[in-house]
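Page 37, top half.
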Amino acid sequence: WDIIKERHWLPFILPNGAVAHRLQGVRDVSVKFRDAGSTMFWAALFLWDTLHFTGVTTKLYAQNDVGSMLLLKKVKDMFLSIPEHPLFRPVTGEDNDHFLTFPTIRSQLLCSTPGSSETVAEQQGRGDTGDNLLLTEYPFWPKPESTLDALVGRIASTANVVIESTGKHMNDALHQMMEL
C-alpha cells in the first residue's frame, strides 16, 4: 500500500452555524522514542474525533492483550476526564475490555490485538469501516504484514492511519516500511 503524507482539513458546519475542522487522510509511519507519549497523542486525537463527529469508528491495535487493555484503559481515563456535558462527553453504550461505544452519535472506539495466525490476521477489521486506525508496536506483531493488509483493506479512503513503534531491529516490518 502507498504511504501518503497528505493532510486535509475538512470543514463541518455545526447546527449553530459554527465551523469545525476535522483532520482526515493522515498517513504516518514513525519510530517513536520510549515514553515520549506519541501513542497517547494519537489516541487522544482519535478519541476527540470519535466524540465530536457522528458515525466515526476508531480502531486501536496494540501488540498483545495486555497492551490492548492498557491502551483502552488510558483512553477511557481520558474520556472520563472530560467534563460531563452532552456536547463534550456523550453517553456511553457498550463498555468492556475491547469496546467503547457512543450510541447517541453512532460512533465507536475499538481496541484489539493483531492476529497470531495467518487466518486470524486476515480477519482483522471485518464488520465495519474504520475512520481512524492506530497500529502501535507494529514490528512486534506475530503477522504484521498480513494484519496490515487486512486492516488497510477495511478503512475509508479518508481514514487517518498511524503506524508507530519503538525500534526492534534493522529490517523489521517497520524499518522496511519506512524505507519505501
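Page 37, bottom half:
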Amino acid sequence: GGSEGTIAKLSRSLSDYFDIHIATFFSEQDYTTTYTYNGTLHPLNETKEQGGLRKIRRRVNHVNRIVDDFNIIAKISFLQNADLINALTARKNIATIVGIRTSVSILLASYKSRLLYKYIFRRCDNVVVQNRENMDLINSVYGTDRKDKISIIPNAFDCNEIIECSSEPIEIARDLNDV
C-alpha cells in the first residue's frame, strides 16, 4: 500500500545517514517482493488468525527487542495499528514519531478512534502529517498545545524515478471501445 511504499522510500533516503530497521508484523516475503528498501527487515510473521491482546503483546515485545538489540534512537510508525504499538513502546530516550498518511478526518470519525489517537498523540514526540488541513484538524480535536508536536511533510517523490517511468511507452486507446 501507500504507507509501505513511503516507508521503503524513507529507508532508501535515510540509509546513508542512519542504520535502518523496519519492523513489519507480516511476512518477509510479502514485503521484500513488493518494496525496494534499504536496511534490515524484522518480520514478525503473524497470521491473520492471531488477534486480540496477545497480538498486541507480541507486537510490543517484537518492537522492544529490536529497540534493545540495535540501540534505536527514533521510531516512526504509519497506520493505526503500528501507531498504537509505537505509542505503547515509547521511551524517554527514543524519539517516537507517528506518521499520519491518510485524511485525519477518517481517523477521527469514531469515538474509539478519537480516544485511541488522543492516547497515541500524548505518548509520541512528533506527529507528521501531509498537509495543513490535517494539522488544523488535529489541533481542533486535541487542542492547540499539540502545534509544537506536529510537522507537515508532503508526500515524497523521486524525480529520477518519475523521469525513468515517463520514458516508458504508453498505449493510447484509439477508439472509445478500447477503453
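Margin note: The beta strands are 21-24, 40-43, 74-78, 95-99, 126-129, 150-152.
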